[in-house]
Amino acid sequence: MRRPLATLVAVASFAVPAVPASAQIFGSDQDASSQESNSGLFGPLVNLFSPRPMGDAGKPAPDATPYKVTIEVKGGDSSLRDAVTSASNLESLSQRPPSGAAGLVRRALADRRDINAALYSAGYYAGDIRITLAGSPPDAPNVFEVVEAARRQGPVPVRVEVTPGPQFHFGRVAILDAATHRPLPDAPTLQRLRLVPGEPALATAVVNAESALVGHWRRAGHPFARIADKQVTADHATKSVDVSIYVSPGPVATFGRFTVSGADFLTPGFIEERIEIPAGTPYSPEVLDRLRRQLLEYEAIASVRIQEADKLDADGSLPIHIEVSARKPRYVGFGATYSSTEGSAINAFWGHRNLFGGGETLRLDAQVSWFGEKSEAVPDADPFGYKLSAAFVKPGIYTAQDDLVAQAAILREVTNAYVREAATLLTGVRHRYSDQLNLQVSLDLEQSRVEDTTGTRDYTIVGIPFELTYDSTDNKLDPSRGIRASGVVEPFAYFGDAGAGPAMIKGSFATYHAFDEDKRFILAGRVSAGSIFGADLYDVPPQRRFYVGGGGSLRGYDYQSASPRNAEGVIIGGRSFFEASVEARVRVTDTIGIVPFFDMGSAFASEWPDFDGMKYSAGVGLRYYTAIGPLRLDLAFPLNPGPEDGDFGVYVSLGQAF
User: Fold this and answer.
1) By the number of CB atoms within 10 A of the CB, which of 38, 133, 295, 609 ranks highest?
2) Which residues contact 124 (CB under 8 A, 6 or more apart)?
3) Closest C-alpha to 325, from 370, 263, 232, 408
4) Buried-state track 594-609, b at ≥16 Cβ within 10 A, e below 16
5) What would the pLDDT profile of 399-411 be if each residue is shown by its tens digit?
6) 439 by DSSP, 3-state: which?
């Protein structure tokens, strides 16, 4: 058998709604002369990978005044020098000369203000900023004549000298009631607010503390909490900053009446039935945020805007208005995958997000595939495969929390372990206990003809799966905190040659933890395991056995390759499996990340995992963070490969590995 050197997996998928031909991906603070549309086929694509959008140079300003800027920061560390340079428009806009001498003077005066703000943000309140244009300060009476004379000789020399002085530290810090000017006893601690006396007096810390204080009292049931006033005094003798923040918590409130607008594209009462906030419930912005997220789970809804009233009703309750808007009801798209060991596939799909007006969704898929190599189990099999499938969801069949779900497919599947032709149906009811916890009970039907090393058999499968899922993560494609857990128990009323009685159980648990507020270092881990008990290995239909290997389970190993084999070395699958992964997701810049990882796993012929013959791999990934999620490129190496395993695997997809 040919030994592959590597596994390469690439995935691409595109939906094609009615959208403009081009769109600017990143905003800009440029003047009107540079606000041109990035038109053309490749403009938006190039902008996705470029920090400066195409067309950024714009048209030259009339009467342009070229200049050459020099910035010198006398003292401070490299981060302070970087902050000063980043704050300077003279530096960042140096390739776009301003219009006339007046334009250069305005830019220099703005720099003095912006650099001073950067110094305050770093805790430097006694800084000295000197800016000269051809040797003259920008507020000199004759500065225009000096600039005009200088630019006739070439680019105007501009010099920025910054002396930060000593860094100030917080002195006395008080959180006071705006009405009584007395300390608020239930205020957050100064450690939590990051206003600890003796620590560097960063101006950004004061601004962040104001936001944190308002959020604290809003979460405590005060919807009109606000910062009434603040006093920030820098003492140059002691190099300290005293801070007094005056908070007006406002009255405690409960939720009152809810009104809805913009929902005429849905059946009457659709939104109201899903507002599970009884009148009199204590006010909480987190409750409103959960409601917004729940409503956005419905594909028919494009946006949800929640507006709080500006005053309480007579009974102390707060009226809430919800405004929703519709997504385009229909969409089409296509996708493609390629793997050097799993084969290639092309998929086209059509969908409707609001089929009958009640939020019903329908998606039809047509896929053709080509297995890249000869199947180990059936070497003379036609490598051609296909799948025609439909998925339907009807919300609220009994209550607003109960959805009807159905998936049906006709398919031909070619793998190294078997070749299958089948018709499948999975239909059931999904009950949402909360926006995090769901239970789905279904009927699982399959009629198939499967060929493997033992011959060709017809299988009838009837099962009743119970699936419980929990997801508290903060992002579907790039989570930084929370957990994801799922468990499935499926007893079979009929299970091919095994008849009635066998059952399948499997579960998965993943957790994510960010070590810093900017989420630049995230540790992620996942464990999955499963078992089929009550049946011998060869009585279990091949397509229902467990297989491990590939980008979705054990990176660095070929698809299904970390699975039991027969005496001839052909993959046959197992009755149990175990997988585990750990990743350190490190953001190097705002858009680039590095991810070292370690995977382990195997499928086992035994009824329960015996951990004999476990496979291990390690590697490193590259992430490019976009607005819709990270683009993933992983390079994995098997640590204990067998004779049939490759040397490495490469995987490309949208979203994290788990």
Assistant:
1) 133
2) 76, 80, 164, 165, 166, 167, 168
3) 263
4) ebebbbbbbbbbebeb
5) 999 999 999 999 9
6) strand
Rounded-to-integer distance, Cα 276 and Cα 282, Å: 13
Question: Three-state DSSP class for 158?
Answer: strand
354, 263 in Cβ contact below 8 A? Answer: no
Q: Which residues of the chain have pLDDT under 50?
A: 1-57
Give the pLDDT confidence score for residue 29 in this predicted structure: 34
Q: Which of 535, 529, 536 is nearest to 505 (CA)?
A: 529
Residue 570 confidence (pLDDT): 93
574, 610 contact by CB (below 8 A)? no
| Consecutive H or E run containing 193 | helix 190-193
The residues with which 321 forms a beta bridge, in sequence order, are 259, 307
What pLDDT, on the 0 to 100 scale, is given for residue 36? 34
Pairing assessment for the beta strands 67-73 and 156-163 based on DSSP bridges: parallel
**Backbone CA torsion sign across 617, 621, 626, 627:** positive
pLDDT at residue number 4? 42
Reduce the DSSP state of residue 244 to 3 states and report it.
strand
Strand ordering across the sheet containing 169-177: 169-177, 240-248, 226-235
Nearest to 472 by CA among 438, 442, 441: 438
Nearest 10 degrees: Cα torsion 509, 513, 518, 521:
-100
**Is residue 80 within a helix (H) or strand (E), and if so which, with residue range?**
helix 78-87
Q: What is the pLDDT of residue 338?
A: 76
Q: Quick one: which H or E segment has residue 569?
A: none
Q: For 234-246, what is each residue's pLDDT tens digit?
A: 999 999 999 999 9
Per-position b or e across 564-579, b if 16+ CB within 10 A of its CB: bbeeeebbbbbbbbbb
The two tokens of residue 35 are 């606000």
| pTM of the complete model | 0.76
